[in-house]
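I am writing to request your help with a piece of structural work I have in hand. Thank you for your consideration; the sequence and its tokens are set out here:
=====
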Amino acid sequence: MNLKIRAIPNSPRSFCAGLHADAIKIKVAARAVDGKANAELLRFLAESLDLPKSAIRIARGESSRDKIVEIDGMESDEAKKKLLELNPDR
């Protein structure tokens, strides 16, 4: 299943910050240098969705803030719901 993500690097901590249009906005506690922000995004998603890191990969948007992430083992609606429940502003 594919999930649209809007990644915002350089945050003090990684967290779900709600929606950006139809994408889930994730603030990432890493700089967008040498793939560090992408690695932190994948780590955060795996931990938040309780899935192994190998089940999550960036399908499109490696060098963009707007990404398509493929997730094995979970439907997109369920993943979106879980991530939005983590939003500290809810």
Remarks:
- Helices lie at 36-49, 76-85.
- The first strand starts at residue 2 and ends at 8.
- The beta strands are 2-8, 15-20, 23-27, 56-60, 66-71.
- The chain has one domain: 2-85.
